[in-house]
Design brief:
The complex is a heterodimer of chains A (about 280) and B (about 375). Chain A is mostly helical. In chain A, helix 3 crosses helix 9 and helix 7 packs across helix 9. Chain A starts with 5 loop residues before the first helix and ends with a helix. Chain B has about 375 residues and is an alpha/beta fold. In chain B, strands 1, 2, 3, 4, 5, 6, 7, 8, 9, 10 and 11 form an 11-stranded mixed beta sheet that branches. In chain B, strand 4 and strand 5 form a beta hairpin. The longest helix of chain B is centred in the last third of the chain and has 20 residues. Chain B is globular. The chains are: A mainly alpha (about 280), B alpha/beta (about 375). At the A-B interface, helix 3 and helix 11 of A face strand 7 and helix 16 of B.
Chain lengths: ~280, ~375
């Protein structure tokens, strides 16, 4: 068999995925951009309307706030899980990793509905607390930002754990042992030797969770009670309720640009290449 | 003019069919027939060679399709021998217009809304209603247009759960805004339809002045401010089933919901834990329109509309699906236990206002923006 040129074989491997991205993603996205600038009339009308709207501004603030808190929550909980799995659960590791991945087998919709059953006014949590005599009146656990955050952190957690886990499993235990043998306390060894080595994993987990959260739709729509209106829900609202494709598209362009800006800013502080591609 | 027809409300009535089936109120055959018809709708639409002696009625599918077939169409066939078929594909103004302009009209009678009816009339798409055949006195006042006439009604009503409220039940929208005496969560629609009216009444504006007050910018702002004031106690509903769930799961104690959903809830909730007041309700009609050049001809279609006005048939609608009779005479025939749930009984009519499509055409989009802002900002 003749040897295929290395460059050709490289492109042959890349083309199928690239073609799918271009046909089913890039082209429709460009279509959306076009609508944003041409409906109902050509020009910047939609963007002017967007910039002038208090509701849109608030919705952007809510979106970024929810995404940021979700990210922090996921990193905190996820770090503990990843740390425990990579350092203590040697024999149980496969089981633990399976448990982390398991939620991917259940649709986000069902996971969000489960939270409704748990957090409702007469849900399991409230009933249990009442039964135990801890509260008199049911707590408001959902149909507000708290409910959205609880469910979002749950849904996003695996996306934080997996990159951190990959990263931590590549860290040799010898460094911490060396630090300890040189007289560092357990805390100092963790903080000055272990933690810095895990930062690439933390950063890639953070970026993944944050960016996914920005565009999240199902969970806030179900658990927000209409008052935690994230941009993605506002877009559907514009398009489905008012057939206002122009403004809806302008909002999605806005969200895309805002997300890109976050990545650009992050790139100034974090080495994105190492955060996203090399987790060690 | 902007089309203000509330298509969501219409689709919701379709969804109610599913609920009815689950409760055993519709036969399995009827249900499957309705659902099957939904799937083969395009086939019906291409049936260009419709027989002259056949009338095609179009509504929004689901249970409503089944009920329409059984209550009005089959009885008409029994009386006259003319087959009447219901198509549930949703006669939006756009579809009717496309059909008339392409010259391939296959629909005879369409279940539209006041907003669409007015636009279609202006565009010359629909035929005038022949009021020598259709009786103007047999529809609710304000629902007889030149090119459209009322066919049923539904209302935005004040629903309450007395059990959650400890017996203190709000009787008016003013009470709903009184969080001190009536604590608990409220639910309002995600859109301003039927909602700003409540807020305006809560300000003490009498029924007949509501749209006049809302006609000014200050009036709208004041209504929006009322929502801002109440928002910590608000969960919004997007679809009809959302509103039903919020009551079923006892998430809310009070709400402004559709009377058709209330009709389902009264059977689903325990006695004493669900109540509806039409005090300050907003009543909205469905409107029949007839496309120009319809295959069955003007006269035949008008006769079918007139047939549907019969009070005894109108009452059946209410019993089966919760849509209120458009014919005020029907109220007398409504069984006593259903009368309080009838949007168009004389007692309930006296305390409601008619949904004003003109106001919505002019103000809705601007108001929606302010409404969302008031709820989240």
């Amino acid at each position: 068999m003749p040897r295929i040129n290395e460059k050709v074989s490289y492109w042959m491997l890349v083309v199928p995925a690239l073609a799918i991205m271009v046909i089913f993603y890039i082209v429709p996205v460009l279509g959306i951009w076009k609508i944003a600038f041409t409906e109902p009339e050509t020009g910047l009308t939609n963007f002017v309307a967007m910039a002038g709207s208090n509701a849109v501004k608030t919705s952007f603030v809510i979106t970024f706030r929810v995404a940021a808190i979700t990210t922090i929550g996921c990193l905190f909980l996820g770090y503990i899980v990843a740390y425990a799995i990579s350092n203590y659960a040697s024999r149980l590791t496969p089981l633990m990793v399976a448990l982390v991945i398991l939620p991917f087998w259940v649709s986000v919709l069902i996971r969000s509905f489960s939270w409704i059953v748990l957090l409702g006014r007469s849900g399991i949590v409230n009933d249990a607390l009442k039964g135990a005599g801890l509260i008199d009146a049911p707590l408001r656990l959902m149909h507000n930002e708290l409910g959205v955050l609880i469910a979002m952190i749950h849904v996003m957690l695996p996306f934080a754990i997996l990159p951190m886990l990959t990263n931590m499993r590549g860290i040799s235990g010898a460094y911490v042992l060396a630090a300890r043998s040189l007289g560092a306390s357990e805390w100092t060894a963790f903080r000055q030797v272990y933690l810095p080595q895990t930062m690439p994993g933390v950063m890639s987990g953070a970026l993944l969770v944050f960016v996914l959260s920005l565009g999240f739709f199902v969970t806030p729509a179900l658990l927000g009670g209409g008052r935690v209106l994230m941009i993605s829900e506002y877009i559907t609202y514009q398009i489905q309720e008012f057939l206002n494709w122009g403004l809806g598209s302008a909002l999605s362009v806005g969200l895309l640009v805002a997300t890109a800006l976050v990545l650009l800013i992050a790139a100034r502080f974090v080495n994105l290449r190492s955060a996203l591609l090399e987790r060690k | 003019m902007q089309d203000t027809t509330d298509f969501e409300a219409k689709r919701d009535i379709a969804e109610i069919a599913v609920e009815r089936y689950k409760q055993g109120r519709l036969t399995r055959r009827g249900f499957i027939a309705a659902m099957g018809a939904l799937g083969i709708l395009p086939a019906l639409g291409t049936k260009a060679t419709a027989q002259a002696k056949e009338i095609i009625v179009v509504n929004w599918g689901g249970t409503a399709k089944d009920v329409l077939q059984e209550v009005i169409c089959d009885t008409y066939t029994a009386e006259t021998g003319i087959p009447v078929i219901v198509d549930g594909s949703g006669p939006s103004a756009g579809k009717i217009r496309a059909m008339v302009e392409s010259g391939a009209v296959v629909w005879d009678l369409c279940d539209s809304g006041a907003g669409s009816a007015i636009i279609l009339e202006q565009q010359g798409i629909t035929q005038p209603i022949d009021y020598s055949i259709v009786d103007k006195s047999k529809v609710l006042e304000g629902t007889a247009y030149n090119n459209g006439v009322g066919n049923y009604v539904y209302s935005y009503v004040l629903a309450t759960n007395p059990k959650l409220l400890g017996g203190a039940v709000p009787q008016s929208w003013e009470d709903v805004w009184n969080v001190k005496d009536f604590p608990g969560m409220r639910t309002f629609r995600k859109s301003v339809r039927g909602q700003l009216e409540s807020a305006t009444m809560a300000r003490g504006v009498p029924l007949n002045e509501v749209y006049e007050v809302l006609g000014t910018e200050d009036g709208i702002k004041a209504a929006i401010a009322k929502f801002r004031e109440l928002r910590e106690n608000i969960i919004v509903w997007g679809s009809g089933s959302d509103s039903q769930n919020l009551f079923l799961q006892e998430e809310v104690a009070i709400g402004n919901i559709w009377s058709t959903r209330a009709h389902l809830l009264k059977d689903q909730m325990e006695t004493g834990s669900f109540n509806v007041s039409f005090n300050g309700g907003v009543i909205a009609p469905g409107i029949w329109v007839v496309p120009k050049g319809n295959p069955a001809g003007t006269e035949e279609t008008m006769k079918l509309i007139a047939h549907g006005q019969k009070p005894e048939l109108q009452v059946k609608w209410l019993e089966m699906i919760g849509s209120g009779p458009i014919n005020p005479e029907a109220a007398a025939l409504v069984p006593a236990e259903l009368a309080p749930w009838n949007p168009s009984s004389p007692e309930n009519l006296a305390t409601q206002i008619l949904y004003n499509d003109e106001w919505y055409a002019k103000n809705q989009i601007a108001a929606e923006e302010l409404y969302v802002d008031a709820l989240i900002n």
